[in-house]
Structure to design on (843 residues):
């Protein structure tokens, strides 16, 4: 403020230097725009500047202030500000007519006044005046162009820009007043938006909104076609699709850094309407406009459609991927490797075809990627684990479902792999111990298929059961893996040209793989993930969690959503002030059933924090459960009200302050504790709101991390999205997010009534204000056949193969049946305490 006063004195002293004064006014304007978007802050600054500048001498500053007041719901102050700009100032505002206002006041002020009237509730009146005002400005511009009197290029440019805003508001206000996209006003609305783009071709918002309006019309036309309405021509649909595509390409050109949602919408339109020649031509023209980097963030969605039935779209997808491969082979190679291992022959063949094209210019990268991914997958699921899992599934098919053919089909690939011969010391050991027995069991199954004698299957299962029990005893002893025994090829692989997984970014130096760590730690859980590390060419160690038996492609898409949410939070004033964001981590699928997850350093799961705290104080880990059983040994047979009574008894006899005390005890001082508590509360609120929108379930204590230094909450494991956890047979999750007493006790004195509620409201407001962008990303889940199939679980819990027929059916019916198999960690209501990551956090 003192600096401003000094500048005001200098401004006053420069009365005979108008150029210097103009420069100072520009500086003040830039400084104002960089200030915090707060009414009080702006008001103090502008009041000081009124010492040398009247409002009518610097109208742009005061117009922006009036708009800020209006958006902050300070309507009285907004009205006073606008009134101070209207001319002549001597005229009493009570006797000033709208016509006089429109004639006397500067056009920018009139426009601001009309927006104020609209916000104040006079919608019909504002719309009418805006239409008249737009026509008048357009006529003035036309007359000026035909008969130039006082040529002022800057003034003309300002009027053209203002006219674009007027037409945009005309369209926007009509949409707000008439939400039906089948009304007769739609052509006028679209015309207003296209006029806005013509008057200001460099305005992102105009192109973006025009594209969205056409997409809304397409949705309406689709609904009409589905309901059987006749008279809707395909040419009409294609016309709006082309308009939407052109608008989205222009939007991407103007805002390339934050184009994820627009790019995803573009792909959705392309895959849905790409069979039309006009749409295909529009896409071809658009591909030539935008840079190849545009497609880097949506490579998973493009590859998901690599085997689409439409030949025209399929050829274009191949062309786009080949182009990406030429410019960014490191970005494309891992997703292509996943597709090449698909169970769908056409999908795998399409991926391999593109990889062959990449060999022409990036042979070393392709060959290294195939070797590395193959070996990492070998480590992720050893033969012991493959047979353990296969025998479990086969027994379910045979004994529960009475399906011997299904049982044989599950075990045959494992037999074939065993017959092909071992390639590592660990596989050789397995073949020596179990090879003869499993060969005998296979022969028994073959005899059954020839003769139909069920006694042969009984003999086979005697052998299978004995093998299963031996493997089950051996698995817990596999706590560490040495590369020389499980993958000697990976141990010898050094100084690769392949980028470290999850690190490639366009325009930055590529960090390649230098070598792999010799030992891997096996985490004692059902899925038995491995802690895996490698050294990069920058000599840093990169740690991952190597997961087998699990498809990580959905987690990869969730990270895309989190990236968008972080962008939206960063541009909102309230959330930016509170540094709200969601912690992300790399997710790199390597196969349909294996992949790598980035390791979040310096964090622990809630389970580990509570376990360590209770063990240090000699408190039983499951004390609440013990108390419930003490009061009611037959808990499962009680009625609902009785169960609630038992549950409340357990709560009354425990404090639930474990996490609160952990945060306090692990803080360096009271200041650090306060910072961690605020960070914990805010991050929990953001994760809760975004998780609610995503329909995220399965939030047991081992799926929530807390950073040691900051207290920040991090969610992991996004397998249960879109409220799939509500469809469980046992213990369905009906709550929107986890907010148990242990979490609330760790907050402030007021619990959820404080920072938590405030942050939740800010986050939800940002999500609602940007619902169109979020829907673009969420719709990509629905239309992505490789993701939607995860929601398609049969009653027996069998997963659908990712072949073309099944994927098409899954994409057409993304909701799927209403039941699915209960996972192992869901069988017990206290399954969250059976920590699958008991050694720490590995995400």
């Amino acid at each position: 403020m003192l600096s401003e006063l000094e500048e005001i004195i200098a401004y006053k002293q420069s009365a005979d230097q108008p150029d210097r004064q103009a420069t100072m006014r520009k500086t003040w304007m830039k400084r104002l725009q960089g200030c915090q978007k707060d009414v009080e802050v702006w008001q103090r600054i502008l009041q000081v500047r009124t010492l040398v500048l009247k409002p009518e001498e610097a109208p742009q500053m005061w117009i922006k202030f009036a708009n800020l007041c209006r958006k902050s719901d300070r309507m009285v102050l907004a009205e006073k500000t606008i009134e101070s700009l209207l001319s002549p100032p001597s005229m009493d505002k009570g006797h000033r007519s709208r016509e006089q206002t429109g004639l006397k006041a500067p056009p920018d002020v009139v426009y601001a006044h009309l927006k104020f009237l609209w916000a104040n509730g006079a919608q019909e009146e504002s719309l009418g005046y805006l239409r008249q005002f737009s026509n008048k400005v357009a006529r003035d511009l036309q007359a000026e162009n035909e008969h130039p009197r006082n040529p002022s290029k800057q003034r003309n440019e300002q009027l053209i820009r203002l006219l674009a805003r007027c037409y945009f508001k005309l369209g926007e206000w009509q949409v707000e007043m008439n939400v039906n996209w089948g009304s007769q006003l739609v052509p006028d609305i679209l015309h207003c938006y296209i006029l806005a783009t013509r008057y200001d071709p460099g305005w992102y918002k105009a192109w973006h909104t025009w594209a969205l309006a056409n997409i809304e019309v397409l949705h309406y036309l689709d609904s009409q076609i589905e309901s059987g309405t006749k008279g809707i021509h395909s040419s009409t649909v294609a016309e709006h699709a082309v308009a939407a595509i052109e608008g989205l390409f222009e939007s991407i050109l103007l805002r390339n850094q934050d184009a994820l949602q627009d790019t995803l919408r573009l792909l959705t339109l392309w895959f849905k309407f790409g069979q039309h020649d006009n749409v295909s031509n529009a896409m071809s023209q658009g591909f030539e406009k935008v840079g190849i980097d545009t497609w880097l963030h949506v490579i998973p969605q493009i590859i998901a459609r690599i085997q689409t039935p439409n030949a025209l779209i399929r050829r274009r997808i191949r062309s786009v991927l080949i182009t990406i491969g030429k410019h960014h082979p490191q970005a494309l190679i891992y997703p292509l490797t996943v597709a090449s291992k698909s169970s769908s022959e056409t999908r795998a063949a399409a991926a391999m075809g593109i990889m062959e094209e990449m060999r022409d210019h990036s042979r070393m990268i392709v060959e290294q990627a195939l070797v590395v991914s193959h070996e990492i997958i070998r480590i992720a699921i050893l033969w012991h684990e493959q047979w353990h899992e296969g025998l479990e599934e086969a027994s379910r098919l045979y004994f529960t479902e009475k399906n011997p053919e299904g049982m044989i089909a599950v075990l045959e690939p494992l037999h074939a792999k065993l017959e092909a011969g071992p390639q590592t010391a660990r596989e050789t050991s397995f073949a020596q111990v179990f090879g003869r027995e499993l060969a005998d069991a296979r022969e028994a199954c073959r005899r059954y298929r020839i003769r139909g004698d069920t006694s042969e299957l009984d003999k086979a299962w005697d052998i299978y059961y004995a093998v299963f029990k031996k493997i089950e005893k051996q698995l817990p002893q596999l706590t560490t893996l040495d590369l020389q025994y499980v993958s000697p090829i990976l141990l010898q692989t050094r100084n690769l040209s392949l980028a470290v997984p999850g690190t490639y970014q366009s325009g930055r130096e590529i960090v390649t793989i230098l070598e792999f760590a010799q030992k891997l730690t096996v985490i004692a859980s059902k899925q038995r993930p491995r802690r895996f590390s490698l050294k990069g060419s920058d000599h840093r160690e990169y740690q991952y969690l190597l997961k087998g038996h699990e498809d990580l492609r959905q987690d990869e898409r969730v990270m895309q959503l989190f990236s968008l949410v972080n962008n939206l939070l960063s541009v909102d004033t309230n959330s930016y002030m509170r540094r709200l964001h969601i912690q992300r981590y790399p997710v790199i699928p390597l196969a349909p059933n294996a992949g790598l997850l980035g390791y979040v350093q310096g964090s622990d799961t809630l389970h580990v924090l509570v376990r360590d705290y209770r063990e240090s104080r000699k408190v039983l880990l499951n004390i609440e459960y013990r108390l419930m059983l003490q009061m009611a040994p037959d808990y499962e047979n009680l009625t609902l009200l009785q169960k609630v009574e038992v549950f409340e008894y357990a709560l009354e006899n425990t404090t639930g302050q474990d996490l609160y005390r952990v945060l306090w005890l692990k803080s360096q001082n009271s200041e650090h504790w306060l910072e961690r508590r605020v960070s914990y509360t805010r991050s929990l609120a953001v994760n809760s709101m975004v998780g609610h929108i995503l329909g995220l379930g399965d939030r047991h204590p081992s799926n929530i991390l807390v950073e040691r230094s900051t207290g920040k909450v991090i969610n992991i494991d996004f397998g249960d999205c879109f409220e799939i956890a509500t469809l469980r047979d046992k213990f369905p999750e009906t709550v929107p997010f986890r907010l148990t007493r242990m979490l609330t006790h760790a907050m402030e004195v007021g619990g959820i009534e404080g920072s938590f509620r405030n942050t939740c409201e800010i986050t939800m407001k940002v999500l609602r204000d940007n619902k169109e962008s979020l829907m673009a990303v969420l719709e990509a889940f629905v239309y992505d056949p490789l993701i939607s199939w995860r929601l398609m679980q049969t009653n027996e819990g069998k997963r659908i193969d990712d072949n073309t027929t099944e994927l098409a059916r899954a994409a057409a019916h993304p909701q799927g049946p209403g039941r699915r198999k209960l996972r192992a960690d869901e069988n017990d209501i206290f399954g969250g305490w059976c920590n699958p990551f008991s050694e720490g956090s590995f995400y």
Observations:
- The longest strand covers residues 541-548.
